[in-house]
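[audit] Reproducing an earlier prediction to check determinism. Same input, same settings, fresh worker. If the tokens differ from the archived copy the diff job will pick it up downstream; this log only records the rerun itself.
[audit] input (757 residues):
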Amino acid sequence: MNDMKPIKPDFKIVGTRPVRPDGVDKVTGKAAYAADMAMPGMLHGRIKRSPHAHARIVSIDTRKALALKGVKAVITAEDFPELDPSIVAAGGEAHHNMANYSANCMARGKALYEGHAVAAVAATSPSIARQALELIEVVYEPMPHVTDLLEAMKPDAPLLHDNMFTQGLPETPTKASNIAKFFKQERGNLEEGFASADLVFEQRYTTQPVHQGYIEPHACVASVSADGQAMVWCSSQGQFMVRDFSAKIVGMNQADLRVVPAEIGGGFGGKTVVYLEPLAIVLSRKAGRPVKIVMSRDEVFRATGPTSASVMDVKIGVMKDGRIVAGDVDCKFQAGGFTGSPVMAATMTALASYDVPHCRVTGWDIVTNTPKVAAYRAPAAPNAAFAVESALDEIARELGMDPMTLREINAVRNGMTAIYGAPLQHIGLVETLDAIKQHPHYEAPLGPNQGRGLAVGFWFNGGGESSVTVSINPDGTVSVATGTPDIGGSRASSAMMVAEALGVPYEKVRPIVADTASVGFNEITGGSRVTFSNGLALVRASEQLVDEIRLRAGLIWDVPADQVAYADGIATCLAPDRAETPLLLGEIADKAAHFGGPLSKEVALNADGVAPCFGVHLCDVEVDPDTGNVTVLRYTAAQDVGRAIHPSYVEGQIQGGAAQGIGWALNEEYVFNAKGQMENSGFLDYRMPIASDLPMIDTIMVEVPNPVHPYGVKGVGEVPIVPPLAAVANAVRDAIGKRICDLPLSPTRIHAAMTAG
């Protein structure tokens, strides 16, 4: 069931469901991904990785590998400049320490997790490259390791970095630790709030690291010319991010590095960083030939960023009527081998859905001997929502109140201020709660061993820097160049917004994702920013073109531009006593050389005015009393989507996020053995949900437009993964009568809870 309020009647293209421009190539297998790229003389790169979770690198001997016939280059950390920690680069929602990123790409001095790269080779064939890896002799001095974040916080825990002192505390510590940073958000008087409460609830909740699970592994091809100019073709969520990060890591000018985005087979935040590209550039520079590197699935799991494990302590005070008066949430997040967990986002999102007058949310960024984490759709928000929404479910039970009613009483409304200080404008949480309440699923009967769970999710959404070019061709067709990789249908939405603004058919607009030398700077595809930010730039460029079209038509007719009307691809002369034949857009463009030159506009902006999004999910499960196995019977997801430019893709985003969240709740986790080695680094053992594991996911699109955007756009990609963890956990609790506070809700864990006592 797909419900949506009617689109404004004066929109002709926005709100329709045309075929995506990249669809045919993808379904016929013609779309070019990074691993499809091949060049004359191309070499094949492979990476040697540490078998130890924590070890000092005593020496690396590459002589035997270099002597192997067919090997053209071998590199180690010695081939990269040693970067000052003050060097940073922007990527996603934060600035990143490039010294850490460099050391994550290639271990320097120590291997900090199993799978950490220590050397790389380039050879004439993949088999020779694999042989060469075996010939590289690395002498390690194994060191004590720690993979559990609570153990890593202890004073006597093995130290990953001798120079890491906790930032953000009132006083700078004098002793190094694995606690990298401390964050805090607060307002009101916490003691006063809890003192006034009729009921105070406390509980600890935990989650394990999970991977984004994109189907396409990381891949790239790099080619460095004799003059030092370089090109990279890669799978990423941002070619400009790849350019900027890689240039800093390898020590070259950004203008000397051109990055071409290939099609991307999934990212979900996991491809907002670099792993292979700097290595391929240095190998190509050394060998004098193009180098291609493609990760195996095992490498993806062992060496690329999952999201954080987390431990969250929740304390909430409420009145008998359900009003929340105080909230205290402490979030401990695993960063992996280098600092940079998304815990700050947890402090900002944990209580963002509710009006809590007295609250504090704290966060701890903790390094462990595990792969450095990366973003995963609404980074940290699913963890935080799992904890808070689970706690609210228990509070509702203790108060004898419907969980929906508790949320309706406390839901944030327009004009309120978030805990992190931002005003909440143009939000639709109340409307979204009501949409679930009015859905047939909400009152549907349940059977034996079945339960129903409800949860709310929030995400800020993003704006940021976007650059676009819109050009009208002599035949009246339109070319659109953006600089953000298309993950969820952004080429289609871009073409639709331009077609709407220019009054031309969608089929006449051809969008492309341009490389770093062909369009101005763009931030990554992430944070649910692209349709909003690119859309603002595209509509602005289109509006400028409409003004230019009227001017050109006026020049053709020798009348002022204000006496020319333009609509639906046709210019009409309004001058009195002039009977001019209307001009089609193509006719005006065809005469452009004689009346001012090409019809093309470039717009670059830093978009602000984003509106946050909320989602409400409802989940029914059945738990097998003999095994503890959970079957998801029914799932409905409602979301405030602003305005759906292409409803099918909005529905797909919601359904995809829900599916990923269900997997996170029930099955997925990294399993480490006593040596700190991952034991389930493949899709057979790392259990992601497949189609037969899931019901059809119903979507309800609630449209509360953002007036800052000409078409009301809000980002929609992050929110859908936020509520599922808690919605599933609350449904399981309803089915078995016991609360399980630790994810995943595996059959063994559920069965143990059911049989305990």
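[audit] rerun output stored. Observation attached for the diff report: Confidence is low (pLDDT under 50) at residues 1-7.
[audit] end
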